[in-house]
Amino acid sequence: MKRIKKNKWKTIFMSTLVVLIVSYGGYRYYKGNKPDSSNSPFEIRTVEEMTESYTKPNLTLSGEVIAKNSQKIKIDSTKGQVKDIKVREGDTIKNGQELFSYATEQQLKTKEATYSKEEKERQLQAARTTASLKWESYNKKATELEELKTKRNNSTDEEEKKALSQEIKTLENDIEMKYSEALSGDNDIVTAEAELKKLTEFEKVEQERLSYDVVTSDGEGKVTYINQELPKLSQEKKQEETFMEIVDQTELYVTGKVNEFDREKVELNKQVELVDRKNPSIRWKGKVVQIANLGSDGDNKKQEDNPNVTKYPYKILLEKSDKMPIIGTHVYANFLSNDEDAGKMIVEKKFLFDIKGKTASVWKVTHGKATKEVIEFKEKNNDAVEVTKNMAMADRLVNPTSEVKEGVEIK
User: 39-97, pLDDT tens digit by residue?
Assistant: First the structure.
């Protein structure tokens, strides 16, 4: 019995010893492969580290990048089949622009109304031409009558006067008929104009009814997606899936929520530093443009940390930059105590050398070697500057001592 107990303790001892040896070996391997600037003869710091030391936020919130406006359009099967898609992916759309239409009987009715109106326009033009000719004929006869009367009055031959009087009488009967025909032509014009007005109104009504079969854009933006196959699929698919999406990215925003305890720290027009959650070295500037005074209705969802704490939606407008985030990017919103520090890159002055006005040189660590880089900066205080060109948050800088030269290995 004692022998069994002795072997048991021996096994436990040996197992513990193996664990300790493996752990120590792993620790030595980790230390050997991890960059350790503390053992380096050079002073190395990242731009991000220096910036954070000077711009510590007094509040950090999470948010998501959204577009100024987004339209997700579905097919309404009750209106019929999609007939004509009037836009393509990548097209820039104006407010009210036609996107696509449905094939319905209303299109035939509208065409018939347009044809009837156009036919009546042709009839009206014909009536005007006919009336013009009739008045022209009447005026010509009237001129002939005046000439015959003048000739008769100037004649001294009784036989000639008698013959002219007979001719005048016949012409007067003819003129009366011509006048009646001209008036009838005018009446035809009036009738055609009235009928055309009615048909024009009818066409307008049919066009308005047709507009219900044409889908238009509710705002400006760019067509980012069209599901060309969806019109051929089942009614259930059409109800579930998006047919067309239009996104207005002329302005980008970040939306999120702030709890009731930090609500007062989020002020309108407050400058904010926005940090990419996947790559913290990527940052943008923005300002608060909206903060709700009433709590969000979604505070009682299961995923909320504390359903008993009221949360207020906020909205931040991003400033324009060379590389804007994509829609859906998740970010941290840093509310700084000093608005002027939002989005800036801060470097300690001791890392600068060859200072000439607003330019200076720094040593960057590139692929494990020192590389000289000329930067531009603005004065911040006695110990630091704001870098405005040729710098990134992820850059590692070396203190410019006499040992640092171009190409020197930096560990």
Answer: 567 899 999 888 887 777 789 999 999 999 999 999 998 888 898 899 999 999 999 99
Tokens of 96: 């009210």
Q: Nearest-CA neighbor of 348 among 35, 39, 44, 58?
A: 44
User: Which structural domain range is residue 276 located in?
Assistant: 57-69+245-341
Are the C-beta atoms of residues 59 and 339 closer than 8 Å to each other?
A: no
Check whether residue 388 and residue 330 sit in a common domain.
no
Helix (H, G, I), strand (E, B) or coil at 34: coil
Residues 266, 398, single domain; the answer is no
* Residues comprising the chain, all counted: 411
Whole-model pTM? Answer: 0.51
Helices (H), 37-92: 47-54
pLDDT in tens, 212-254: 788 999 999 999 999 999 999 998 999 899 999 999 999 999 9
Sheet strands (E) in 174-310? 214-216, 221-226, 244-259, 271-276, 283-291
Q: How far apart are the first and last CA of the chain?
A: 59
The C-alpha angle with vertex 58 and arms to 52 and 61, in degrees rounded to 5, equals 90
Task: Name the phi and psi angles at 159, rounded to 5.
Answer: -65, -40
Domain count, the chain: 5
Q: At what angle do helices 158-211 and 105-154 cross, to 10 degrees?
A: 170
Q: How far apart are CA 67 and CA 382, in angstroms?
A: 41
- Tokens (6 digits) for 313: 């939606």
